[in-house]
């Protein structure tokens, strides 16, 4: 009986984990995000590119 309960628990855990991963990847589309590139010149004359990812989402996975 314990083996049956263990396999039911393991299957349930797998389904919940898979559902969570699918939910996170489906909802994290970054449609409202912006990517801004800033350029500057250092003291020795080389160009430096700095990128910023600006997102309105509270959590990014």
What's a quick, concise take on this entry?
It is built from 1 helix and 2 strands. The model has no long low-confidence stretch (mean pLDDT 84).
Notes on the structure:
- Keywords: Membrane, Transmembrane, Transmembrane helix.
- The chain crosses the membrane at residues 6-26.
- This protein has a two-stranded antiparallel ribbon.
- The longest helix has 26 residues, at 2-27.
- With 61 residues, it is an alpha+beta fold.
- The protein is elongated.
- A hairpin with a 5-residue loop joins strand 1 and strand 2.
- The model has no long low-confidence stretch (mean pLDDT 84).
- It has one helix at 2-27; strands spanning 34-41, 47-54.
- It is built from 1 helix and 2 strands; from the N terminus they run αββ.
- The relative contact order is 0.15.
- The two termini are 39 Å apart.
Oligomer classification: single chain
Number of strands: 2
- Uncertain spans, ≥5 residues at pLDDT below 50? none
Main beta sheet strand tally, sense and closure: 2 strands, antiparallel
Quote the distance from N terminus to C terminus.
39 Å
Instruction: Going across the biggest sheet, name each strand in turn.
Output: 1-2
Q: Please count the helical segments.
A: 1
| Helix/strand class | alpha+beta
Order of helices and strands: HEE
* 3D shape: elongated
| Helix content percent band | 40-55%
Q: Name the beta content range.
A: 25-35%
Transmembrane segments: 6-26
Keywords: Membrane, Transmembrane, Transmembrane helix
Q: Which secondary structure elements does this structure contain, and how are they paired or packed?
A:
Blueprint (H helix, E strand, L loop, with lengths): L1 H26 L6 E8 L5 E8 L7
Antiparallel strand pairs: 1-2
């Amino acid at each position: 009986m314990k083996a049956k309960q263990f396999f039911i628990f393991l299957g349930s855990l797998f389904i919940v984990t898979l559902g969570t991963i699918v939910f996170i990847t489906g909802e994290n589309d970054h449609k409202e995000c912006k990517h801004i590139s800033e350029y500057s010149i250092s003291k020795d004359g080389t160009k430096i590119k700095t990128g910023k990812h600006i997102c309105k989402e509270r959590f990014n996975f």
